Amino acid sequence: MSEETIQAEKQENVQQENNSSENKIAELEQKLAEANDKILRSLAELDNVRRRSREEIEKAAKFAISGFVSDLVLVTENFFLASENAPKEEIEKNQAIKNYADAIVMTEKELLKVLEKNQVKRIYPLTQKFDHNFHEAISQVESDSEEGTVIQVIQAGYSISDRLIRPALVAVAKPKS
Question: Which domain, by its residues, includes 21?
């Protein structure tokens, strides 16, 4: 073999090694880019899971008292019934009955304060527009009031934040025939 042939073969071998190295580098760079992409996606997914978990925990804490409040609103409404149906004339005549009626009203107010402190709101929509999100119409009554206005509250509703616990049962105005 001639010196030129050997030199050509050496150059060809070097060229092949360079091509092979370049291919390996390109392959490794591609694998690195894929690995970086997977890591970034995993981190984003982890952040999403953390955020969703935090939101679920906040919701659970916020609405954990829903069952308790559902039972407690019955007691609250009984206080309202007691004060609304108290014999006004007898209360004015007898100081002991007046003290008793005042105690019921004070207890009612304190109970409402405690409920509001825990983001529980009483829905008593008398003279408001009917809202199907918070009210349940159980009758329509002919009235001079504007159509769709709540003219009677049969039972007050309750909500925690914006979540409805119990809708207000109402009678809604309809135009006279």
Answer: 1-63
